[in-house]
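Try this one yourself first.
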């Protein structure tokens, strides 16, 4: 595979002639280039050779064709939340999909076509006005593009499954600029690969989703003291809860937020993000085991659990730019008190300005789907975890990478897979862990069919078979 041509080798005049007016083109020194190249997470300083902003599928197809013919790498920018800047290659042609944000929602069939550049928050807010939802993550600013293609694990995961479990079809621009309609009947191999295999196979200009009835939910943040018993107890309570309850735990040093009493600032707490999407009348009973854990730990420090629209639970997300994160994702079969004690001791011992272990309890509808039905191959994992450290600069953050790796290694137990959407890098070891065994072989065959030259390589990269 040849490297991308240097920025100057991509003919700007040729690019403009090929693309405008169907897409606007920004190159370094153009007004708007600096703003357009910014992404959400801090510390990512990539300089694409050009940023193309298409208005429609035809504009995307022209941009991909141009890049393919020029031998340039294509990177795709949707919600801009790629955790560690995957897909942000200096010298690549970036296709910015933010202009493709139309939502066509059909209440009668409970299906929707959504533009590939839309955010999860915009989609969920619009669907919520009809009492409907498709499961995405926990953050509204994340793009439906990235989260869907990597899998999608969020606040409705246990009740309604992953995002890919609601995906019905997609419109895809492949590496040679063809536009394909993809679903269970048309290009089924590609449809399988899109459900977890990431941005390896083309640019998705539109997604077609199923929607479920989700009106008000009971959810929000419950903050409690972090002890080995409270961490392990919450994981156990979430695992054995009815599937309408999804719990995402963040074990962390309490930030100086107004809702947290000052005496807790800087001390270890568990921020439990809860979402009960069952009958409101059954909420108290379903949440009782979680509240019992809080009571045994000395009582909730803050209780923000309330009834309200599901879309209201999706956080705005961190403001990028000011801090840089390093992290390591893992799956584990559970977190007992010994593992919880170890993670608390490690969080206490490190001097990172912010550090956290996130634990997303899975099971429920996530585990209903057979392992080989989609390209997400970790259906049986009980918990999806992340260890993260934040620092003021990229260099300082890199200094904590051995620490996050060692802690994740201890917590994963015997599980050696990882979730592509939280991957630190897109290299071969990461890709093999995200896509183990038969999943890898199948993805590599699909890659050979639709992107044999690996034009789409700014991702957890699957090499063509
Ligand atoms: C604050 C935060 C919260 C998060 N919360 C969750 C969560 O709750 N659950 C979860 O599962 N994940 C979560 N994630 C991870 C998130 O799903 C991934 O980082 C995802 O890749 C972001 O998608 P994006 O479109 O915003 O990012 P981008 O950086 O725009 O895209 C990331 C990559 O996805 C691919 N891609 C995106 N859109 C398309 C498209 N239309 N066609 C082809 N390729 C495309 C490209 O390879 C691109 O490089 C979170 C990330 C952050 C930063």
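Now uncover the answer:
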């Amino acid at each position: 595979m040849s490297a991308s041509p240097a920025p100057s080798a991509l003919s700007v005049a040729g690019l403009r002639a090929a693309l405008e007016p169907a897409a606007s083109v920004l190159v370094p020194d153009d007004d708007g280039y600096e703003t357009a190249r910014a992404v959400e997470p801090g510390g990512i300083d990539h300089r694409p050779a050009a940023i193309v902003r298409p208005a429609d599928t035809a504009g995307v197809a022209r941009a991909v064709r141009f890049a393919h013919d020029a031998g340039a790498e294509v990177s795709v920018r949707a919600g801009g939340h790629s955790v560690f800047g995957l897909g942000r290659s200096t010298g690549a042609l970036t296709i910015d999909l933010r202009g493709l944000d139309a939502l066509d929602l059909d209440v009668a069939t409970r299906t929707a076509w959504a533009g590939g550049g839309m955010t999860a928050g915009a989609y969920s807010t619009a669907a919520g006005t009809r009492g409907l939802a498709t499961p995405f993550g926990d953050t509204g600013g994340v793009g439906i593009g990235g989260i869907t293609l990597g899998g999608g694990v969020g606040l409705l995961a246990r009740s309604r499954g992953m995002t890919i479990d609601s995906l019905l079809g997609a419109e895809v621009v492949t590496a040679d600029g063809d536009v394909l309609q993809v679903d269970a009947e048309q290009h089924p191999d590609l449809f399988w690969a899109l459900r977890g295999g990431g941005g390896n196979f083309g640019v998705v200009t539109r997604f077609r989703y199923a929607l479920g009835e989700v009106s008000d939910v009971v959810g929000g943040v419950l903050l409690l003291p972090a002890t080995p018993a409270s961490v392990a107890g919450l994981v156990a309570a979430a695992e054995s809860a009815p599937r309408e309850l999804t719990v995402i735990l963040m074990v962390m040093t309490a930030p100086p937020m107004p809702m947290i009493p000052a005496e807790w600032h800087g001390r270890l707490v568990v921020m439990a993000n809860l979402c009960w999407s069952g009958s409101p009348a059954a909420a108290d009973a379903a949440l009782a085991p979680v509240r019992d854990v809080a009571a045994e730990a000395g009582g909730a420090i803050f209780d923000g659990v309330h009834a309200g629209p599901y879309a209201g639970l999706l956080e705005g997300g961190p403001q990028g730019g000011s801090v840089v994160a390093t992290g390591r994702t893992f799956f584990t079969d559970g977190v007992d008190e010994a593992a919880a004690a170890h993670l608390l001791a490690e969080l206490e011992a490190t001097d990172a300005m912010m550090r956290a272990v996130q634990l997303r309890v899975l099971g429920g509808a996530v585990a209903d789907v057979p392992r080989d039905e989609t390209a997400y191959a970790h259906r049986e994992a009980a918990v999806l975890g992340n260890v993260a450290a934040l620092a003021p600069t990229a260099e300082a953050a890199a200094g904590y990478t051995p620490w996050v790796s060692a802690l994740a290694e201890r917590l994963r137990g015997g599980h050696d897979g990882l979730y592509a959407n939280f991957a630190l890098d897109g290299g071969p070891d990461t890709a093999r862990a995200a896509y183990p065994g038969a999943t890898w072989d199948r993805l590599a065959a699909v890659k050979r069919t639709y992107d044999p030259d690996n034009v789409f390589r700014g991702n957890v990269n699957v090499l063509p078979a």
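Discussion: The chain has three domains: 7-99, 103-213+436-450, 216-422. The longest strand covers residues 216-225.
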